[in-house]
Design goal:
Helices cover 35% and strands 15% of the residues. The chain is an alpha/beta fold and 406 residues long.
């Protein structure tokens, strides 16, 4: 990996505007808001352009100028990024969306988009001298951060709800993380992490309590823009729990616009939630800037079962600023969409990814998505990581059976 300069200049609070030194460990702003990385885009534009990307490796690290890691020696990588954008012709015809695409994060290391945030977050933690990090997780984030921490030589302490998928639990344990289960939701796990971090002096890697996970996630937006030839799609749908991905995509697109890589209106961003846990949707429908805690949340799309996101105001800002929307779909539609994508396109997505296809169909039915518009579904993980989501009655055969001609 050749030496490329990062143009990260400081950490900035999106609420109060306070700025922090980027080469010091910081978590939240004094006002309680998440911090975001700011870049010197004017200086970056002097060196970084579309031509600069030619010949670079096909990973998220091709965008080094817009990532926070200062020294290439600190990069912790498993080859993550530059996942494919695949046309969904049959599903598009079925849903009435003629230009339908899926960006499939299921092929990335650890099988989900969480590898992006972990790669950049762990690399930056290593660079800042962190030795132990801790986080609550619904599964995949903990697995990714455990694996990347192991590669970096850091210790990870992971707290999960007891009904988190067994595969992700095993990933954490196999990577040598200290794994604990809690009889409760991710919000309950977060409270334990907060107390433990304060008591032990660990680095809090919770969603948006450190500024660098979002920088990894934003590379999805950078890639989509490049993969569409710097002419962005009309609509991008994203399954929204903690919301880091949709915030990151919005951040990426605004940075690219300031750099002159893209022009015109930004894609309309859609936050998709499950009806059993839809705080962002409720806030959007009420035109609020923050959400309320969603009581008794439950959904088959476990990764978006987040009753209250720390960065909810950033998610809602991204929606409002792009003329997007927020929509909830029920579990029955999620499971139906999962089967439909697998059977029509051979694409076995995660439940969260199925939710966005179900949502796209609803938005097209309501004509919110117009005829001829290009639409990108962001599938955040591989369906095989959720083996118990679907069940089928499979017939048995006798050893001497002969199947009829079909």
């Amino acid at each position: 990996m050749s030496k490329i300069n990062s143009f990260a200049k400081n950490l900035r609070c999106p609420k109060c505007g306070r700025e922090y030194e980027i080469n010091e460990i910081h978590q939240l702003c004094e006002c309680g808001s998440p911090l975001l990385v700011s870049y010197d885009l004017k200086e970056a534009a002097k060196q970084f352009n579309k031509e600069s990307l030619k010949g670079r490796e096909k990973s998220l690290w091709r965008y080094r100028e817009l990532l926070p890691v200062q020294d290439d020696e600190n990069i912790v990588s498993l080859g993550e990024g530059f996942t494919p954008v695949i046309p969904l012709k049959k599903a598009g015809e079925k849903s009435g969306i003629s230009k339908l695409f899926i960006k499939d994060e299921g092929v990335i290391p650890t099988g989900t988009f969480k590898a992006r945030g972990a790669a950049v977050g762990v690399s930056r933690a290593k660079e800042l001298g962190v030795k132990v990090l801790s986080m609550p997780t619904n599964g995949n984030a903990g697995a990714a951060w455990s694996i990347y921490s192991a590669r970096a030589g850091l210790k990870a302490v992971i707290i999960m709800p007891e009904d988190a998928p067994s595969i992700t639990r095993n990933e954490c344990a196999a990577a040598g993380a200290d794994l604990y289960l809690v009889k409760g939701l991710i919000s309950d796990c977060g409270k334990i992490v907060a107390r433990s971090v304060k008591e032990n002096g660990w680095f809090d890697a919770s969603t948006l309590k450190e500024p660098y996970r979002i920088e990894g996630k934003k590379t999805m937006g950078l890639e989509i823009a490049e993969q569409f030839g710097w002419k962005t799609p009309d609509v991008i749908l994203y399954p929204t729990g903690g919301g880091v991905g949709i915030v990151g995509i919005y951040k990426a697109l605004t940075e690219l616009k300031e750099l002159g890589f893209i022009e015109g209106k930004l894609p309309r961003l859609v936050a998709v939630q499950a009806e059993g846990c839809s705080p962002i949707v409720k806030a959007y429908n009420e035109r609020k800037n923050e959400s309320e805690f969603f009581e008794d949340s439950k959904t088959v799309a476990f990764g978006i079962n987040v009753p209250k996101a720390l960065g909810d105001f950033l998610v809602l800002e991204a929606i409002y600023k792009t003329d997007g929307c927020a929509i909830a779909v029920d579990d029955e539609k999620i499971l139906s969409a999962l089967k439909e994508l697998a059977q029509t396109e051979g694409t076995f997505v995660c439940p969260e990814g199925a939710a966005i296809y179900a949502a796209a169909k609803e938005l097209r039915k309501d004509n919110w998505i117009k005829e001829g518009e290009s639409v990108v579904l962001l599938n955040t993980g591989a369906g095989i990581k959720y083996p118990d989501t679907l069940s089928f009655d499979v017939p048995y055969l006798e050893k001497d059976a002969v199947l009829p001609l079909r």
